[in-house]
From TrEMBL, chain B:
Entry keywords, A to Z: ATP-binding, Cell membrane, Membrane, Nucleotide-binding, Translocase, Transport
The protein's name in its UniProt record: ABC transporter ATP-binding protein
Pfam families linked to this entry: ABC_tran (PF00005)
GO molecular function: ABC-type transporter activity; ATP binding; ATP hydrolysis activity
């Protein structure tokens, strides 16, 4: 205490030594702190504004589609366009649904997309697990072949596939639309990477726990790559739900045709483009996808974030 | 409870030989610690016992049964991994009972076993949590519980404490020793930390470059090292080793080719006085480390740096000191590092100035 007092009383001519310099220093520091605070606020506002702009850009086509699907035909042509229709014409949905055998399209779409998904899961999980976890002769070569198939466009192989399906009498059947996509090179690639990231020790622990190989895959490995699996499932579902080219080429009548073909037909039927009906049809088309997306949103985000126990 | 025998084991990775002709018997109910520097083959040996690695040659026997072709799950061996290797998608309960489920243990029995084990390791409040939400120590306990619940013949632990902080490590060390006492099962433990080895093992196997240097009790390993490697590896600070050529003033009555002379830092005495008969070194203290109960001095002598450790003695403040090592506490090693025993020495008089 005595020492402290002595320091405090250390004055020359009544002015404490160094007091003014210290004040100046603290003053400068507080100005700097204020500046930094303002900068932070400005940046966070800019961030929010930027995100809002992005949301607008992405949401606008959707909002436009919903708005148009509820307008009358003349309203769709008004300039400047109106965002909210005066009367909501729900009849458009019924009209769209009734332009063709939409129930059958819808069922076909569900059967084909889900069928493809199930078959893909059955093939890509064991294949990618084998590529990721087993060392066997020719594994690199075989994986190379799988990768090469990624680079071949569908337009290049549809003719031989068509002839083949026709030979097996599979044209205009669900099976004919499902079988060509029974496996997915992209899925094998994606899942192989995910399986590779899992530590060997986990597998060894499971082996010491007397787990059979199928049990290791189903109980330990697959749950660990679930986010990746869900993401792939979503990609696959969307791709095949929206697929236009393949069902168009592989069907010659309505028995196995899918929703995108039905929607395209709305345009053909009327001669002039009835945008309101068309948009109602499109909404019917995308509604299931939106539903699936909302349900699996959390898993998708997880898939892109590192997930593991250290 | 089981005895483990490794007979003429060898292991090659492609063209590289990791282990050659390794013979080892791990006693029934012992706490055997395999210790050695990184890459000495200790983990590989352990993994071969567990069946996770296949030996290139030789036989492994667990309890009078050759397990060469027995898959890991059927060897009645449980393992605790360095990174715990807990199943992240399962709860603590799921992790513990996974092995039991695979063995087809009925549900009621399973529940009872899980309950008992989680009480022992103190996990009862966490049974329904996922491993991610547990601390390092708790995860370690889950890994232990998972191993214990199977009531294996052999526990294999691969550096299980190296991911824990120092305090928790000490605590878990004690818990593992107690656990071993309680279960009476054979424990095989791998570590690179000689302090861990000394404090836990009742049998220590020192390995280097795939070769067993010495397998003995901790005290034998410390007091009676079989070779230079063991002598230098066990003990902190390590044994001071001097080249025979640098050692002056020792009258060695032996024709055996002595290559090195060594002494433990704790057996040397600083400024002991002339009445103690021994080998005398002179030097300058470079660094003093005071740990409370013990002091460690780094001393520069004419031929090199050596360490001296004293217990419950006041810190030496003088710069230049005389260090005396009793003749009985000197260790002799041959040119290729093997231990030489029964060597008689006396100090040449007068002591040459300057020590070594």
């Amino acid at each position: 205490m005595k020492f402290l007092k002595a320091v405090n009383n250390n004055t020359i001519g009544g002015t404490p030594i160094g007091a003014s310099a210290e004040d100046k220093w603290t003053g400068q520091r507080s100005i700097q702190a204020n500046l930094r605070k303002t900068l932070r606020v400005v940046l966070s506002v800019l961030n929010v504004v930027g995100l809002l702009v992005l949301v607008l850009i992405f949401a606008m086509p959707f909002v436009w589609m919903i708005s148009t699907s509820l307008k009358t035909m003349p309203e769709t042509m008004i300039f400047p366009p109106e965002w909210i229709p005066k009367n909501l014409v729900w009849q458009n949905y019924a009209d769209a649904w009734n332009t063709g055998p939409f129930l059958s399209y819808f069922v076909n779409s569900v059967v084909i997309s889900v069928g493809i998904l199930i078959l893909q899961m059955l093939t890509i999980i064991p294949a990618s697990y084998a590529f990721a976890r087993y060392k066997f002769r020719g594994s690199n070569f075989l994986f190379g072949i799988v990768m090469v198939t990624l680079m071949i466009p569908a337009q290049l192989i549809f003719l031989p596939v068509y002839l083949e399906l026709s030979a097996f009498k599979l044209l205009n059947t669900h099976l004919g639309l499902i079988l060509p996509f029974a496996s997915s090179a992209f899925g094998i690639f994606l899942l192989r990477q995910a399986f590779k990231q899992i530590s060997d020790e986990l597998l060894e622990a499971a082996r010491l726990d007397q787990a059979a190989e199928w049990k290791i895959i189903l109980k330990i490995m697959v749950p660990m790559v679930k986010p990746v699996l869900v993401t792939f499932a979503l990609f696959s579902f969307i791709a095949h739900w929206n697929d236009y080219f393949w069902p168009l080429v592989m069907t010659t009548n309505e028995t196995a045709r899918t929703l995108p073909l039905g929607i395209a037909k709305i345009r053909e039927v009327e001669g002039v483009a009835t945008w309101n009906i068309l948009m109602a049809g499109n909404l019917i088309l995308v509604a299931p996808i939106l539903l699936v997306f909302f349900l699996s949103q959390r898993q998708i985000i997880k898939a892109f974030v590192y997930n593991g126990v250290k | 409870m089981a005895k483990i025998e490794l007979k003429h084991i060898s292991k090659k990775f492609k063209d590289e030989t990791i282990i050659e002709d390794l013979n080892l018997t791990i006693k029934d109910g012992s706490f055997t610690v395999l210790v050695g520097p990184s890459g000495c083959g200790k983990s590989t040996t352990l993994r071969m016992v567990a069946g996770l690695e296949k030996q290139s040659g030789g036989e492994i026997w667990i309890d009078d049964k050759c397990v060469n072709d027995t898959p890991p799950g059927l060897r009645d061996v449980a393992m605790v991994f360095q990174n715990y290797a807990l199943y992240p998608t399962m709860t603590v309960r799921g992790n513990i009972e996974f092995g039991l489920k695979n063995r087809g243990v009925p549900r009621e029995e399973r529940e009872k076993l899980v309950k008992d084990i989680s009480e022992i390791v103190g996990l009862t409040p966490h049974l329904d949590k996922k491993p991610q939400s547990l601390s390092g120590g708790q995860r370690q306990r889950v890994a232990l519980a998972r191993a214990m619940v199977k009531k294996p013949k052999v526990f294999i632990l691969d550096e299980p404490l190296s991911n824990l902080d120092a305090k928790l490590r000490n605590q878990m060390r004690t818990e593992l020793i107690q656990l071993h006492k309680r279960l009476g099962t054979t424990f095989v433990y791998v570590t690179h930390d000689q302090v861990e080895a000394m404090s836990m093992g009742d049998e220590i196997v020192v390995m280097n470059k795939g070769v067993i240097q010495q397998a003995d009790s901790p005290m034998k390993i410390y007091h009676d090292p079989a070779n230079l490697f063991t002598a230098e590896f066990i003990g902190t600070p390590a044994m001071n080793i001097m080249n025979r050529k640098d050692v002056q003033g020792l009258d060695i009555q032996s024709a055996a080719g002595i290559g090195y002379v060594g002494f433990r830092p704790e057996q040397a005495m600083i400024n002991a006085g002339a009445d103690i008969e021994g080998y005398v070194l002179e030097g300058e203290i470079l660094i003093r480390e005071s740990l409370g109960a013990e002091n460690i001095y780094q001393i520069q002598s004419r031929t090199g740096i050596f360490y001296v450790k004293t217990f419950l003695a006041p810190l030496v403040t003088a710069d230049r000191v005389t260090v005396t090592v009793p003749h009985d506490d000197l260790y002799y090693f041959g040119l290729s590092g093997e231990r030489l025993r029964g060597i008689e020495v006396s100090t040449k008089r007068p002591v040459p100035a300057g020590g070594i």
